[in-house]
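Hey, resending since the last one bounced:
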Amino acid sequence: MACGASFALVPIVIARSTENFLLGFRRTRWKLDQRVTIANGGSWIYPFHLPKSGWLGIRCNSDALVSVEITSGPDLARMTTDLSWKPEEVRRNIRNASVFYRAAHDGNWVIVIRNDTLQPANVQVKVSEYLGAWS
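The structure tokens again:
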């Protein structure tokens, strides 16, 4: 019984250490570290490539409520044509967020930050990635 429980905890411990590596307070090298201003009702898009089992971490600090979404390239095309679409990972109506995502398949992904408020939003975006050797 105890042996089974210890094997079940290993993936949780590995995921938590990966999240700390991605967005830890001592992190100084970012893939992207940028401050953007998003107009009311507008969005900001950042495309990137992530291999299977690659980890992505996003830290977003804003002065207004924004939505942070990670989606694939084809889903982004559906979003721009107002068809139904479902992002892979989403945080809605937040000021400060940390988003972690592990890619289920190799491909091109897009980070979308949307401002649905009536005022412009100043957003500090930091992106980090971790590519595991066993992917």
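The domain at 2-130 is CATH 2.60.120.380 (Jelly Rolls).

Sorry for the duplicate.
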